[in-house]
Amino acid sequence: MEAERAVADLELFLAERGDNLLRAAVLLAGSREAGEDLLQTALERVFSRWAAIEGNPEGYLRRTLYHLAADRWRQQAAARRQLRLLWPGVAAVADDPTADVDLRDSLVRLLMQLPRRQRAVLVARYFEQLSEAETAQLLGCSIGTVKSAAARGLTRLRELSGSSSRGLRDAAEPESARGQLA
Amino acid sequence: MTTDLENQLRLDMQRATRDIRVPGGLALKANRSRKRKTILRAATAAATATALVGGVAIAGVTGAFGSAPTSPNAKLTAYVIERVQRALAPAKVDDMVGSVRTTFPPGTTLGPVPGGLSGMGGAARWSVGYEVVWADQGTGTSKFAGYTTGGQLVFAAELTRANGAASETAVIYRDSTWWTATLPIPSPPPWVDCIRGDAVYLRPGPDGGWPGFIRSQLACGAYTVVGHQVIGRVDTIKLTGGPGSTLWVDPASYLPVQVNIGPQHMAFRWLPATPANLAHLNVSVPAGFQQVQPPPPPNRSPGTPAAISGAR
Question: Is B1 on the interface with A (CB under 8 A)?
Fold first, then answer.
């Protein structure tokens, strides 16, 4: 059957390329669980469009992943606003999406505090190592938007890391010294 | 120009995610989830259509159900029933342990008798609020246990089948007695495609028990998808089959979650036939309990509809 073939094809694809996609999803979503949920939802979209996808589904899957992440963050932000109104005590928990992420990597923790577009640009540029043009195509925006979002994101990261206990000085330390933090 | 911060960010992101591996079966899980959402959307549309125009089909349900000139609700019903029939086929359920909890109307009195039936014959009876039946669908071994409304165990009986005979051990906790009986397995009555009405008729043998009974009810063509409803933690598809008959199925597995037939409410669980799950079928006699003669078997010919019966 068509659906079974699609499942088998996608399982093979995930065995080869899935780890990297899931890692990007975790960075976009802020936790392991949310990342898996995000990737699964993107896969559902792929199944819905399976007949129209020609060849390698990676491009469509990655685009869907980033667009869904933006949607999800909007929904989560709205939910947090409602939670604050209803139960002020809950907000502190709901505001920390990194609760089950490895927080030893402080820049990743600070990354979670950035607006969604800046975060998506930084994940695409520095984790996936896409060019500015590729990032612009992925996110459906101009190269100028990518440049400005990346610049603002890095500036904000620098500010945040400067006020954190680790500080920007740690970021400039050699690899051997940083390794002790892990 | 690449700055230290950019390098650090790249390294931190790699380090934070280096141990993350995509779990096996994620595509299969995604496909099931997508189908479940499609069905639930269609069930919602069907319910809306039914509510708005009294069951007359309106546009809005599309996709997996083709484009035949049948109404969307009828197509959805046919699709769901076909899936439920397939999920309950012997080849599918024989590797499962099924559990059925039946809640009885107040004042119900039951007692175990040889043959795995309760509530019939001349056995002593005790007030029972609900009964839980465990059945190994592959071997036909079953256990039924009666509880008070408050959850106190009243009796439990284990029925096993081997070499053309059934043996049963029943423990009655209310009077600290137990009995054992051996009896021949009656020839299964002929398969009935469609069982109507609000009597529960659990046919023994292959394609019997609750799976066979529900399949036979669905074969009557009386059930219709009317919407979805959360039962426990499952957002189920709800089907009705006439007055007093309602079936809720899990949209992921299409196995029944709950059935209401007349005054009886049955809640189902379907588990893989692992040693731990099969252990639910065991009945052991507590120390100090007195062995007694089994009560006479019920005066019931094979094929007679029974209001209350064991799983197989």
Answer: no
CB B215 within 8 A of CB B85: yes
Nearest of A121, A104, A88, A99 to residue A170 by alpha carbon: A104
Asked if B23 lies within 8 A of A23 by C-beta distance, the reply is no
For residue B214, what are the contacts with CB-CB under 8 A and spacing of at least 6? B84, B88, B247, B256, B259
Q: How far apart are CA B166 and CA B150, in angstroms?
A: 32
pLDDT band at B256 (very low <50, low <70, confident <90, very high): very high
Establish if A175 touches chain B: CB-CB under 8 angstroms.
Answer: yes
The complex scores an ipTM of 0.75
CA angle B305, B308, B312 (to 5 degrees): 80
pLDDT of residue B190: 64
B149 at interface of A, judged by CB pairs closer than 8 A: no
Across B226-230, average pLDDT: 85
Per-residue pLDDT at A74: 56
Asked whether the beta carbons of B133 and B310 are under 8 A apart, the reply is yes
Among residues A152, A142, A82, A89, the alpha carbon closest in space to that of A116 is found at: A152
Report yes or no: A22 at the B interface, CB cutoff 8 Å: yes
Q: If you measure CA to CA, which chain A residue comes closest to B10?
A: A126
B109-153 pLDDT tens trace? 888 888 765 554 455 678 888 888 888 877 778 888 999 988 999
Q: Which residue from B178, B167, B113 is spatially nearest to B310, judged by alpha carbons?
A: B113
